[in-house]
Design goal:
Blueprint lengths: L2 H11 L1 E5 L6 H10 L4 E5 L5 H11 L4 E5 L5 H10 L8 H6 L5 E2 L6 H7 L5 E2 L1 E2 L2 H10 L4 E3 L2 H4 L2 H7 L9 E3 L8 H6 L5 E3 L6 H10 L2 H22 L10 H8 L6
Parallel strand pairs: 1-2, 1-9, 2-3, 4-5, 6-7, 7-8
Length: about 260
């Protein structure tokens, strides 16, 4: 899957699940996503053995778009983190790419050197908290920009406020506190793709999923999220069939550019 196909998958899905749950099997979770109509997932490097899990996912589900997230693209900070956490060390950008990551996500900005090495080869989604960060990262080669932590930054109101400053050119991916309650408002604000974790699932239901390892129930919950996103995007952009549209077609209708 090349960069264009991966970005098209993300746009088609409209949702990026943050895999941050040690008690769930990574491949079975990906299978639940596929059953729900979603073909991607970001694997946070804050879990134990992220490289091992990412490699296993790529091997067992090669057509599934597996990304790596929570990346720390600053060697000194990464060294400090790993020195204090030898049993739960975080990998570098190069290591997750070697393990098969098909897109890169961070809660913070990526360095210019990382764009020089990987821009145009893999989708890069930096975490941004200001209009300046969004524009700067996009100018370096970011394909989409993650707004994080979205809830604390102001939620849909922040998106609406910052979008004119970026000329509604860059596709923003709000992550952190996204749920069925605010998805309609995010899409109304112009969001094409949302990021979210298992916290979007009602707590009692998620406890049942964990306790019973019920991946059918997980898929059912994820499908509700996907259907809500599809419904609201269809209302917002009736001219686009997101299941079939190319990146260029989406760009033409929405005005969003994806740096490919």
């Amino acid at each position: 899957m090349d960069i264009r196909a991966t970005i098209q998958t993300l746009i088609r899905d409209g949702f990026i699940l943050v895999f941050n749950e040690e008690r769930l099997d990574i491949v079975k979770t990906a299978g639940a996503l596929v059953e729900a109509g979603i073909g991607n997932m970001e694997v946070t490097c804050r879990i134990k053995k992220p490289l091992e899990k990412l490699s296993r996912l790529r091997k067992e589900l090669p057509e599934f778009a597996a990304g790596a997230a929570s990346l720390i693209d600053y060697p000194e900070m990464l060294e400090a983190i790993n020195k204090d956490n030898p049993d739960k060390s975080m990998p570098s950008i190069d290591e997750v790419v070697s393990a098969g990551a098909q897109y890169l996500v961070s809660a913070v900005n990526f360095r210019e050197s990382t764009y020089e090495k990987y821009a145009g080869k893999l989708p890069i989604i930096p975490g941004c908290g200001t209009a300046t960060e969004i524009v700067t990262q996009f100018s370096l080669g970011a394909n989409l920009c993650k707004v994080f932590p979205a809830k604390e930054l102001g939620g849909p109101a922040f998106i609406k406020a910052v979008d004119p400053a970026i000329h509604k050119l860059i596709s923003l991916v709000p992550t952190g506190g996204t749920s069925a309650a605010n998805i309609p408002d995010y899409i109304d604000a112009g969001v094409l793709v949302l990021g979210g974790s298992f916290s979007a699932i009602e707590k009692a239901t998620f406890t049942k999923i964990i306790d019973q390892q019920d991946y059918k129930l997980l898929s059912s919950e994820l499908k509700k999220m996907k259907e809500l996103i599809d419904e609201k995007r269809k209302q917002k952009w009736p001219a686009i069939d997101f299941a079939k549209a190319t990146v260029e077609q989406v760009s033409k209708v929405t005005g969003r550019k994806f740096n490919i």
